[in-house]
Amino acid sequence: PCNGLVIMALYAGFIIAYPGTIKTKSIFIVAGILIIFIMNLMRVVALTFNWMYYQSSFEFNHNYTFTFLVYAVVFIMWMVWANKFSSLKLQPKES
Asked: What integer pLDDT is reported at residue 28 of this predicted model?
């Protein structure tokens, strides 16, 4: 369950749900999944060091700290997609 596949699928689903070209979506999905994979790899390495040198904070870091960081990055990537690369454009509200 700590391999990051669920968050990768969730991220890809976010991108697929928004309008845009297949080419742009594909590039953004692949790049995002690569970023998530690298973050998860760094998370596992950091948790290994955490376990080796400071076990008392391991559970907190595993359950909250790294989860928050990964989801924050996914949210930022999704917002960049929605605001910069998606073909969805909001119309200004007329008074």
From this structure: 92
Structure tokens at 11: 């991220």
Sorted by sequence, the CB contacts under 8 Å of residue 3 that are 6+ apart come out as 40
Question: pLDDT tens, 71-88?
Answer: 999 999 988 888 887 777
SS3 string, the chain, reads CCCCHHHHHHHHHHHHHCCCCHHHHHHHHHHHHHHHHHHHHHHHHHHHHHHHHCHHHHHHHHHHHHHHHHHHHHHHHHHHHHHHHCCCCCCCCCC
